[in-house]
Design goal:
The complex is a heterodimer of chains A (114) and B (112). Chain A is mainly beta and 114 residues long. Chain A contains no helices and eleven strands. Chain B has 112 residues and is mostly beta strands. Chain B starts with a strand and ends with a strand. The chains are: A mainly beta (114), B mainly beta (112).
Chain lengths: 114, 112
């Protein structure tokens, strides 16, 4: 049990639709990152939020966007869904964005785009 | 850029066998190194980590040593159990934002 909770756990969307995934970070953690894990692959970094500001972004298009709230919970929004967006979306939290700090993952949200 | 290369799986072992999963990396800067484990249908759990050269991370009988000269962080366990069956990911982080770069994962299957 990492203390990072994500919702929903599973969802199915149609190509072109929009989706919002939610994450509650571990108590006391001010940094949240989102990762996309395609089937059979390692997770890929999407972006990170630190104290409500975007603090880094991976190689994902602008239709992937996010928010972090004052209580450090976070949302991932994906617009204009494509079939290739089907994946497990993982939220991870840590205290400060410092190298070597332990990063805790939630159980993920499985997104299927049809 | 940063990258992690792991041996391809699946690795199939009998219970009580010795396990090695190879991991090598390239990094811009001095990385911290991690092993994460993912059980079927679940998220990632941190297994162990090492933050500087020659450090040994260990947990639940698993070990890995940070070898800067060979840019490696191989995972080992002396005697595997059926319950160790999972996918194992090697990962690194460097200064920028402490984000993780993962390998593709290695599936371990342990039979009784």
């Amino acid at each position: 049990e990492t203390g990072v909770t994500q919702s929903p756990t599973h969802l199915i969307k149609t190509r072109g639709q929009q989706v919002t995934l939610r994450c509650s970070s571990q108590s006391g953690h001010n940094t949240v990152s989102w990762y996309q894990q395609a089937l059979g692959q390692g997770p890929q970094f999407i972006f990170q939020y630190y104290r409500e500001e975007e603090n880094g972004r991976g190689n994902f298009p602008p239709r992937f966007s996010g928010l972090q709230f004052p209580n450090y919970s976070s949302e991932l929004n994906v617009n204009a869904l494509e079939l290739d967006d089907s994946a497990l979306y993982l939220c991870a939290s840590s205290y400060d964005s410092k190298q070597g700090n332990t990063i805790y993952f939630g159980e993920g949200s499985w997104l299927t785009v049809v | 850029g940063n990258s992690v290369t792991q041996m391809e799986g699946p690795v199939t072992l009998s219970e009580e066998a010795f396990l090695t999963i190879n991991c090598t990396y390239t990094a811009t800067g001095y990385p911290s190194l991690f092993w994460y484990v993912q059980y079927p249908g679940e998220g990632l759990q941190l297994l162990l980590k090492a933050t500087k050269a020659d450090d040994k991370g260990s947990n639940k009988g698993f070990e890995a040593t940070y070898r800067k000269e060979t840019t490696s962080f191989h995972l080992e366990k002396g005697s595997v159990q059926v319950s160790d069956s999972a996918v194992y990911f090697c990962a690194l982080s460097v200064l920028e934002y402490s984000t993780l770069t993962f390998g593709k994962g290695t599936m371990l299957l342990v039979s009784p």
